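ingest -> fold -> write
write: protein_1
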Amino acid sequence: MKLTPLKAFLLWLVAVAAGVAWIFQARFTADMSFFLPSDPSPEQRVLVDQMKEGAVSRLLMIGIGGGAEAERARASVALRQAMTDSGLFVSVQNGEPGGLEAERDFLLGFRYHLSPALTPERFSPESLREAVGRTIDVATSPVGFLFKPYLLQDPTGEMIEILSQLHPGTEPDTRGGVWASRDGQRALLLAQTLAPGSDTDGQEKAIEAVRAQFAALQAEPSLAPLSLTMSGPGQFAVQAREAIRSEIERISLVSSIGIGLLLLWIYRSPRMMALGLLPVVAGTVAAIVCVDLIFGMVHGITVGFGAALVGEAVDYAIYFFVQSGRVGLQSWRETFWPTIRLGVITSIAGFGVMLLAGFPGLAQLGVYALSGIAVAALVTRFILPVVAGDRHEIPSPGVLGNTTLGWLGQAWRLRWPAWIVTAVALAYLVQHHDSLWSTNLSALSTVSEADADADARLRADIGAPDARYLVLVTAPDQEAALVGAEAAGRRLDGLAGQGLIGGHDNPARFLPSAQVQRERLAALPPRQALQRDLAQALQDAPLSAGRLTPFLDAVDAARGGR
């Protein structure tokens, strides 16, 4: 069946409309790990995993400013409860004593496995007396209400030892019963999202939930003056995606207007200008759809850079109009199309090499470019001639056009200045060849200076660590990895003692190896020996040994469970 101009245009319109509908449900991302190697080294794999799934990538730091201290504290308590009830967060902490019940009970049950102070000497009469005395001092301190309920179960203070070990070194100040900034002007919360860092949609949902919950709190007149500040990797990812999307829309609009005006000046015919956009529009839509089909998502940078590559498709329509206008449609197909086809194949082959790149981001750019160019060429060959008709006469340039062409005809006079500029540019490149290339991914960051400053303030107030280096320990199983981490930790402790590093964190601090846990449990004395030494240690002490039956039972249970 022969295509009529109307049928050909409707075919193009239906295909583009279907592509646009697909694009509306496609997932766009700004995850910078997409431009890291697809087959990373062990070190790179750790970095990629941390960026996508690591605990740090899930952190959300929240500050509540304005109002009085009591209102900020009340808003902090209410916001933590609302965030916890939302089901979008693994944990939400603001310094409230009741914020760690589950964690506290877990640590209490395994305190003899986890306490770094557990050695055979721990249960000598002298050590028992000293440990119990310290625990009593803590129980009578301002924070004693946290430990007093467990005094009879844990008189030696193993829970205190565990919490001291887990302590990051600094923690926020407390004002009104909740965390506060150093100057006391902001209440602080630290949350961990349920969605991983790579799930930008999940991060956005959690952030929007916090905003909505805080807005609901502000409906109360006394809390209306409060303000909300948030920061964290998820916040930056959401902002980056929106910034990239906004920039792409702006650039696409500006470039489309620019291309349209240029084509209008060249063709001097609105009809031919509209026809000339058929290959470009089809190629762009097809490129985005192909990328989404192959990769399951479209990176914003791909669309931004890919749009320039698909701009090559504009040339195809220009070739068609100029050449077929001179020799006719049939002669164009026989004489000129083979040359254009060769150029298309060359471009596809060139961009196709990007598919072999070890970076998913570059491979996505390759798919975008070659699919867009291929579709634009097919539209130029099979759709555009039918819609445009057999012959095309480009209107005469007119006064403005002739004047512009006259200026362009004098461009040869600029050949020497052009050579001089080229020589200067070449000299500059040679002189600065060592500093031309940047391998720092932060150069692609969309984080503004204001957001970076807010993040630094919240991080300093909360006491979040500034981790710059990762030590990778590989092993065939978890136990061997923990043993290796403990060995690495001892070496890092030595470096910290020499002042070469500020400190370090270690997974074995949270979960010791089974070997270390067995050694700790082996240090627990039999009940009768412990009861005897305890009675000797607590003579004339404020706490009677006779009241510590829960302690004896707990030690017995831990010995039996080893």
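write: protein_2
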Amino acid sequence: MLWPHVDEARRKKPIHFPPLSVLAGAAWLAGSLVTLTVGLAVAAAHGGPAVWSSAEDALRGVVPALVAGFLAQVLLGALSYLMPVVLGSRPSATQQATKVLDTLAVARVTMVNAALLLAVLPTPRRVQQFSWIVVVVGLAVFVLLLARAWLVARKAGSGPMTPPGRGARVDPDKGRRLGHALAGLGVAVLVAAAGVAVDPAAAGFDSGAATQAAGPAAQSTGETTTVSLHVQGMRFVDADGRTLGAGTPIEVPRGDKLVIELTNTGDQRHDLVLANGARSPRLAVGQSARIDAGVIDGNVDGWCDIAGHRQMGMVLRIDAVGGDGDAVTPGIGRGSGRGMMHGRMMDRGRQDSPQAAQADGTSAVPSLPDLLADPGPGFQARDAALAPASDETVHKLTLDVTDEKIEVAPGFTQTLWPYGVDGQAGTVPGPVLRGKVGDRFEITLRNDATMDHSIDFHAGSLAPDRPMRSIAPGESLTYTFTATKSGIWLYHCSTMPMSLHIANGMFGAVIIDPPDLPPVDREYVLVQSEEYLGADGSIADQAKINAENPDLVVFNGYPNQYDHDPLTAKVGERVRIWVLAAGPNDGTTFHVIGGQFDTVWKEGAYLLRAGNSSQGGSQALDLGPAQGGFVELVFPEAGHYPFVDHAMVDAERGAHGIVRVTD
């Protein structure tokens, strides 16, 4: 495929836009095919179920290069050949149109391809975003030039015929092409610099990277110690496979310069931040970074800075040894590829949330408002009414994950990561999905947030390896399952730490009706969860989650909302209430004050059915975290019937509402 282009270029220099664009496109096709071949070979080497997942990742990785590099440039190059002929009614008009489409050809082709290279390589995210803008603009210029070429050709076609010999094409760019190429390259370089300037930390630059955070200047020995680390689960691990954490800090000779070579061998993005200011960019799976930690003259803490990862144990400590009476551990090597470890206790007192740590390990959130206050006139609770299951047997839906500031209590917001439907703003809980046994669900998860996320449907029975994997910002995956069992099933983000992702709003319900479920007059769904509040506007507090110390316990995402905007029913109506305990840590004991349940269905089975011969009743539906069921009752008279989690401290934290019953 390449040879005709090479042969043509050898006989005639490609100095104009059509051959330059087509040749660049051919080069991108060749590069993409080589990259894809290598990716497929690596996938095959993995063996087992990982083959197709890795192969898909390899194919997905070359799609941008194929579309923007190959397809777009070959198309524009071909149009640059053909359109002047179409536009020109005489040779002079064709020549003029060709000249317009050839404007700054070398600069345009160089700029687009240099920017595209930055966009598809593993450069910092901001650099990639800015580079894509340059690529799109560079390609779109063709449309403007085409419009101008049409005007020029039209004018030339309506004028007098050009005398023979005077219409010969002139090369106005002769001697300037090197300058044009450098100018195009300069645009791409400036864009990369702008991306780094906007987000220097993501690019691995930090003004404090080579110095300690405080204290006198370190006395350098002039030597360098290099430490190789990788990721295993939620831990940093050294080259010998030892897990860094409590009892295993890294020892570095005092005064040595430390270089850390970090490779992300985990299953989601990670980074490493040191207390002295040095840090890595956020690394995708398989990426590596070299961190210059500067001269080590004291103990330095390190951690993964992604929300919740620090509390999950992604911490380390660097100890300066030798000097001041300390003996250097025998055998410690400078430049040996790793530091040595020893058995001191790790200081894990730091928190990565902005609040100050308390003695019990939770975080003190300053100036919390009255979380159970009246939300004011005009408040509208989340609609808890549940529509019947449709007759559809295939349910297709796109769930979008975004970072959203959402009011979680009167006058108090948190930055949550909710699931939204088809581009709409997310809600907490996420949308309720409903179907019947045998229905097929095709759910596309699209990550438009700022960190890795995933989804786990308890309603599906299948190997979790691929559909429940974490995806990076900008990625998507399709999760397909067939409902084989009835129940009210939890779905949630399964990216670690799961407790934080669930507490930060990433959960919802799937209801699969039991066979022959009788109709009722009204159906409601209540999803109970806990809220562990960070500062106003921030995310949930992982330290509170770990301590199991919630600020609020709520139905459908907001405390006491159905006190202010009650559910409704009429005397004598049969009411079914579906209940799901989303956690992340606690269950519920659901109770309606003044009501008695004649039907109780829990975790796929009836515990009690209306008309049972014993005339028995039920007062509460007890559910552990992630369990669900429904209750049915008939209200005997008009009035206000409170419903609560009968773990009374949780009812007092906001798990409280009212059913207003009228005649």
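write: annotation protein_2
Residues 50-87 form the longest helix (38 residues).
The chain is about 25% helix and 25% strand.
pipeline exit 0
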